[in-house]
Structure formats: structure tokens, C-alpha cells
């Protein structure tokens, strides 16, 4: 219990500090942003508010200007959904819905790499829309 309180306190302290560290947001045309918003509908982030790895992931999401739904996995039903879908209650986890399947991606570094690859400066989709 004291360890849990300490971890939560530390998490919120890191959130507080990060509030003062600016995020340089990626610039897009409104057409590109609409396309990105549309693609983001298929993504959901399961997270804990005070988790540093989740904060890192949320900052990457903000930098990329993505409107991704987030679910607080401390509570049900999100916790139960995460366990049933991904197999473990570990955050952050990005649920990626495809046409006929879904992927539950764990590990903040993997999630950030995936988002950078899909929506970053050299993005593969929504690029150079007129
Ligand atoms: N290497 C992982 C670490 C993730 C991690 O340790 N997450 C913690 C929260 S900060 C967690 O989900 N712990 C399980 C629990 O608290 O039930 C990452 O970078 O995503």
C-alpha cells in the first residue's frame, strides 16, 4: 500500500513536471488532419493516468496531433476489456482495429514507434493530401 501510494505520487509529480516541458506539435494541412482523425478512430489507448510510460505515450500522441480515445484501465470495464483482449493488465496498451481483426500492442516504445511510423513526419498514410 505505501509503495503504491509512493508510485502514484511519483507519477503525478512527473505529470506536473512534464506540464512545463513544451511539446512541439506536428503541423498538417486541415485535409491531412481530417484524414488522420479518421484513421485515429480505429485506435484506443488503455492507460493509467499516473503511469510514466503512459505519460510518455500520451506526449507522443499529443506531438503527433492524434485524437485517440483513452480508457483508464484501473477501472472496469476497461480493465476487464484489456485483460480479455490483450491478455494482461499492463499499460500502456494500444488497441489497433483493422478490417477483420484487432491488435493489442504493449510496450510504450513499440507503440510510439508504430505511431511515428504511421503518422509521423515521414508518414505512410494521409500524406500530401490536396
Ligand atoms: N516496459 C513497459 C513498462 C510498462 C509498465 O511497467 N507499466 C506498469 C504501470 S507504470 C503496469 O502496467 N503495471 C501493471 C500493474 O500495475 O498492474 C513499457 O514501456 O510500456
Sequence of secondary-structure elements:
HHEHEHEEH
Which small molecules are bound?
glutathione
Contiguous low-pLDDT stretches (5 residues minimum) are none
Instruction: Write down how many β-strands occur, each being a DSSP E stretch of 2 or more residues.
Output: 4
Output the number of helix runs.
5
> What distance lies between the first and last C-alpha atoms, to the nearest angstrom?
55 Å
Query: In terms of quaternary structure, what is this?
Result: single chain
CATH architecture: 3-Layer(aba) Sandwich
Tell me, what is the CATH class?
Answer: Alpha Beta
Q: Number of folding domains?
A: 1
Radius of gyration: 16 Å
Cα shape: flat
Give the structural class: alpha+beta
Within the largest sheet, what's the order of strands? 2-1-3-4
CATH topology: Glutaredoxin
β content, as a range?
5-15%
**CATH superfamily assignment?**
Glutaredoxin
Amino acid at each position: 500500500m505505501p509503495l503504491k501510494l509512493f508510485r502514484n505520487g511519483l507519477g503525478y509529480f512527473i505529470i506536473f513536471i512534464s506540464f512545463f516541458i513544451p511539446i512541439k506539435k506536428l503541423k498538417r494541412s486541415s485535409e491531412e488532419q481530417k484524414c488522420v482523425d479518421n484513421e485515429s478512430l480505429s485506435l484506443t489507448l488503455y492507460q493509467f493516468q499516473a503511469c510514466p510510460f503512459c505519460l510518455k505515450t500520451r506526449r507522443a500522441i499529443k506531438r503527433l496531433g492524434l485524437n485517440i480515445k483513452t480508457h483508464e484501465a484501473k477501472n472496469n470495464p476497461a480493465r476487464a476489456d484489456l485483460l480479455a483482449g490483450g491478455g494482461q493488465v499492463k499499460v500502456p496498451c494500444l488497441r489497433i482495429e483493422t478490417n477483420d481483426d484487432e491488435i493489442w500492442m504493449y510496450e510504450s516504445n513499440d507503440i510510439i514507434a508504430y505511431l511515428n511510423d504511421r503518422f509521423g513526419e515521414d508518414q505512410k498514410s494521409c500524406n500530401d493530401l490536396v
